[in-house]
Design a protein that fits this description.
This protein is an alpha/beta fold and about 250 residues long. It starts with 6 loop residues before the first strand and ends with a helix. It is globular, with a radius of gyration of 18 Å. The strands form 2 sheets. The protein has a 6-stranded mixed beta sheet with strand order 6-7-8-3-9-10, with helices on both faces. It has a 4-stranded antiparallel beta sheet with strand order 2-1-4-5, covered by helices on one side. Helix content is about 40%, strand content about 25%.
Length: about 250
């Protein structure tokens, strides 16, 4: 990954405080266009708080968020989405009584700006169903297109969530622990799916599964107590004494 690439997302001195706790502590983060950038850190490091700010769900107390050259600091979540940022959540939020195809078709419909009052469009309109099927193919779900979301496995629901995020045609895909709760086989499949998106989509990946992080990430930023202590490639992060101490500290307290 060339360091000469332009940043699609950049934060400057981003801070968020909850009472006496500085949850994000002057965070400077730069995600380059086209890269897979992983954000890792021990439990309680402030990852969720940071990601909530980066998607517009939480307003920072100070600092700046620039996305695609625009200052979006303090703007509501729909402004981030409209600008081209799509977030998948740690806890999936799907329409359980609809098929996988219909779920993705609704995401296509939302991106196209159609009214959600016309629910039937998502089940019958080929202008929505055809691109929806494409995103199911991309995420390995085409064979399950007609199954209800309630009837598929946990891993397949996470794949569906990625498909729905892709249906909004984002410039930046923000994945919040996509491997959470998965077994080894499901995690490996998700890594394969995300590998196929490499280069086509810029991805900011928040993940505890370090095998997945090292397999996918061009660069990795490490967040500890709300502060980024290191950013670099796999080898640089693995050999960083401060990073190793942070993780060893977490393990010793487990």
């Amino acid at each position: 990954m060339s360091t000469g690439q332009s940043a699609i997302l950049e934060t400057t001195e981003l801070c968020k405080r909850f009472g006496g706790v500085l949850a994000t502590d002057h965070v400077n983060l730069k995600v380059l266009k086209g890269e897979v950038h992983a954000l890792i850190g021990p439990n309680g490091a402030g990852k969720t708080t940071l990601i909530s700010q980066l998607s517009g769900l939480l307003k920072p107390d100070s600092g700046r968020i620039c996305f695609k050259g625009k200052n979006l600091t303090g703007k509501p979540a729909h402004r981030f989405a409209r600008a081209g940022l799509a977030r998948s959540f740690q806890i999936t939020s799907l329409f359980a009584d609809m098929t996988l195809l219909q779920n993705v078709a609704l995401a296509v419909q939302a991106h196209a700006g159609h009214s959600f009052s016309f629910w039937r469009n998502a089940t019958t309109d080929n202008r929505l169903l055809e691109p929806a099927y494409h995103y199911l193919q991309t995420t390995g779900l085409a064979n399950n297109a007609d199954r209800l979301a309630s009837a598929v496995s946990h891993g397949e629901r996470r794949q569906l969530e990625v498909a729905m995020a892709l249906a909004t045609e984002p410039s930046l895909l923000l994945l919040d622990e996509p491997m959470a709760g998965m077994g080894t086989e499901e995690s490996n499949l998700m890594v394969e799916i995300l590998q196929k998106l490499r280069g086509d989509k810029t991805i900011l990946l928040i993940e505890h599964d370090m095998d997945a992080v090292f397999a996918l990430a061009d660069r990795i930023s490490v967040l500890v107590y709300g502060r980024i202590i290191a950013t670099g490639n796999k080898e640089q992060i693995q050999s960083n004494a401060e990073v190793r101490a942070a993780y060893l500290g977490e393990e010793s307290n487990a």
